[in-house]
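User: Predict the complex.
Assistant: Input components as received:
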Amino acid sequence: MSAASNGQIGAVVDRDLTTRRRVRQASAESGARPTFLHDVSAEELTDRLAVTKREFGCCLVIDDAYSALRTRINRLANIGDVISSAPHRALLETSTGGVVADEEVLPFAPESLDLVLSNLTLHLTNDTPGTLIQIRRALKPDGLFSASLFGSETLTELRQSLLAAEAEAAGGVSPRVLPFPDIRDLGSLLQRAGFALPVTDQDRLTVRYDTMFDLMRDLRLMGLANSLFQRSRHPSKRSLFLRAAEIYAERYSDRDGRIRATFDYVYLSGWAPHESQQLPARRGSANVSMKDALEGRDR
Amino acid sequence: MDEAKTIAQPDPKLLELLVCPLTKATLRYDREAQELISVKAKLAYPIRDGIPIMLPSEARELED
């Protein structure tokens, strides 16, 4: 399977590779999969929907890993039909109606959906602006897009430790940790994609592990191992990771010796424009001068 | 005949929402072949066990 974006110039993430890895994990019989990262943001997105005073008739959940979102939003009263999409059939809950689709080339008709949700998928898109535009177009007027993704500070300790170890050993570095997007850029992307009332906010989760290797094991199980096109294709020496683990423990451990890993959750939401929404006043429509207003002379 | 009926059919409500992911044009549903046809893109997207596979890479190319 080759996703359209993999052929695109300047693609950063090898999306086919991430999908293949996730399929392999999903079909592996044994072993508990760590779902806590997805659970945290699915819970938050669900809480936000619960207090949104709107009925959403037709809802799309994009690539809902571990069905974390779907199992939660099913208990909300204001959600109607739910469609799931996933990049591979093995990642789709077959008991519930779904569609195999790539979020970078969405197959939904213009103005067909009331709500689009995505839980920790957008940081793995190459064409993030294009994805957001397609989501906005698929929404009915006054439809809502609500998503979580990993922001720029995610895995910063791992990134620094690997960089430092590789610089020491090889005198050069290769990228090993995904460049996660900055929250400010995401806000402007939402705006450029034509969303009204865009909101972004951030939440940090620190997870503690015994060693860097325990962290990397979890990342692999979650399909979050290095999927960068620019990744080094040579097998890395074990000594590199041993040194990186040392640096990690030196720089980012607590008093009890356990290491810290930061997960920087960014939450995005925006509405497809509709005339009922609040808008900025038209240019030139003010009847008080800015000077007077600033000097408090308007009363 | 009975066997044919047990083939999982896609949700008609879902089919109404789907368009060609490349051209965003409407699709024609071929019930016999279990395919969704995009005339503009000359592609037929398969439906397997009632699940539409809307990936251009999985679609069958149509001849003129």
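Residues 12-17 of chain B form the longest helix (6 residues).
Let me know if you want any component modeled separately.
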